[in-house]
Specification:
Layout: E1 3-6, H1 16-34, E2 51-61, E3 67-79, E4 84-88, E5 91-96, E6 99-105, E7 108-112, E8 126-137, E9 146-156, E10 161-171, E11 175-185, E12 190-201, E13 210-213
Antiparallel strand pairs: 1-12, 2-3, 3-4, 3-5, 4-7, 5-6, 6-8, 7-8, 8-9, 9-10, 10-11, 11-12, 12-13
């Protein structure tokens, strides 16, 4: 059994789809300034990375002189055989005057970019996050606090979706939810917890605690 919730009522993933778009923008930038040659470049046959950047630090500044987002990582490398970008210890801070800052971190990110080439089967951009994946908005005491933790998260910037088939934990000031599998859609403002769902809701009145559990039938 699965449970669907609106993002407005269950503020647990606001900003995640935006971070996917930010990640793709940074990857496009690094790829464009470091990738030389055409698709017929023989270096694509190499198994080892054909270029890499260590301890990279990328800051996007808005018109008012403040940072829009800040992206860092231990190492970014291009894998020519698969034409993928691999990032170790990616860390993204996103800033927006309309909401609290959002931070995304993981042990490793693997980025697949769509291509117009006839022999390329990638129809959309994908960002795969692996390891200790955490998305956090605001501090725990803040009313807009949310935290998502999992071991794998796939970001789809083209369709504004976030998907995982792994165990997840979602926290807000009043809600703690655990499940196996999650799909969030920025466009429809729907968040779906797939299976083994348990949702604990703390009422506004602290005099009692409500608990709701759902498990597969």
């Amino acid at each position: 059994m699965s449970i669907s919730l609106t993002a407005d009522r269950f503020k647990t993933w606001t900003g995640i789809a935006l971070l996917a778009a930010i990640t793709m923008g940074v990857i496009w930038y690094w790829h464009s300034v470091t990738h030389f040659g055409s698709g017929d470049d023989p270096s694509r046959q190499r198994k080892e990375p054909d270029y890499y950047i260590e301890r990279f630090n990328y800051i996007k500044i808005s018109n008012n002189g403040k940072a829009n987002y800040h992206v860092t990582g231990d190492r970014l490398q291009h894998l020519p055989v698969t034409d993928q970008i691999e990032i170790f210890q990616p860390l993204i801070h996103s800033y927006d005057a309309r909401r609290e800052p959002v931070t995304l971190r993981a042990d490793r990110a693997l980025v697949e970019q769509k291509s117009a080439a006839e022999n390329n089967t990638r129809q959309e951009d994908k960002v795969h996050l692996h390891g200790d994946v955490r998305v956090v908005q605001a501090e725990p005491a803040h009313p807009e606090f949310m935290q998502l933790t999992t071991s794998y998260l796939m970001l789809l910037p083209d369709t504004d979706k976030v998907i995982t088939d792994q165990a997840v934990e979602l926290l807000t000031p009043r809600v703690r939810a655990t499940a196996v599998g999650l799909e969030a859609d920025q466009i429809t403002q729907q968040l779906q917890l797939r299976s083994q769902v348990k949702v604990h809701v703390q009422p506004r009145s602290l005099s009692r605690t409500a608990t709701t559990s759902r498990n597969p039938s």
